[in-house]
Design goal:
5-stranded mixed β-sheet, about 220 residues
């Protein structure tokens, strides 16, 4: 009932309506629309909720979407360029509200390889080249992946390319480097990388290292 004053008298006006009470919000939801990205082959964590609606009344769906906890989900796309996450919430009055969010699907980026802490075109002496490990990582990638190099090729001028297993030069590769004259341009390429929990087929070979032999 609405009660209001008119000509000195209280007048009552009855009415009937449905309404929903939600908790007072204590945080804002902020997102960068152009950074809605998920990566193929990775467990991409998502938080999905409707403000004021209990988790058991919220339903989210998308290909390869798995619920892992209260409002917590993992999306692990296998292919494509976009994925739509649809969300439905049932309110206290029985009505439903729906929303959706489109995510871009991207490939895992190419890892960056290093030797003796250097990447790209580098100058190394014979000792550092033959004793250092070939490493690779994803730099400032949003996921902290545990990586390891398991194979690479090394090309020494005037000698056949040598395939190496592991992350260090093999005895054959060391012998080839020791025969190379000073200022030789040596290439380490086709660097194959593993990451824990990720299919090797989804990781591109790491960047090539071009080495100038200083002595």
């Amino acid at each position: 009932v609405f009660t209001f004053l008119e000509d000195g008298k209280n007048l009552e006006k009855p009415f009937q309506a449905n309404y929903v009470v939600v908790p007072r919000p204590n945080s804002a939801s902020v997102s960068a629309d152009k950074m809605n990205v998920v990566y193929i082959g990775l467990d991409n964590p998502l938080t999905i909720a409707f403000p004021g609606v209990p988790d058991n009344k919220v339903v989210a769906s998308a290909p390869n979407l798995t619920k892992t906890g209260n409002g917590k989900y993992v999306l692990k796309p296998e292919s494509g360029t976009e994925v739509v996450v649809s969300v439905s919430a049932t309110l206290d009055d029985g009505s439903k509200v729906n929303d959706k969010r489109v995510f871009r699907i991207k490939q895992i980026p190419k890892p960056t390889s290093k030797i003796a802490g250097k990447d790209g075109s580098v100058s190394l002496n014979r000792r550092d080249l033959t004793t250092s490990r070939v490493l690779a990582d994803f730099g400032d990638f949003v996921y902290d992946l545990n990586t390891s190099v398991y194979a690479f090729d090394i090309s020494v001028p005037g000698q056949p390319t040598i395939a190496v297993a592991g992350d260090r030069l093999s005895p054959q590769a060391i012998e080839a480097v020791n025969r190379a004259p000073r200022n030789s341009n040596i290439i380490i390429k086709n660097i194959k990388v593993r990451a824990v929990g990720v299919s090797p087929d989804l990781i591109k070979p790491a960047t090539t290292i071009a080495i100038t032999l200083t002595n």
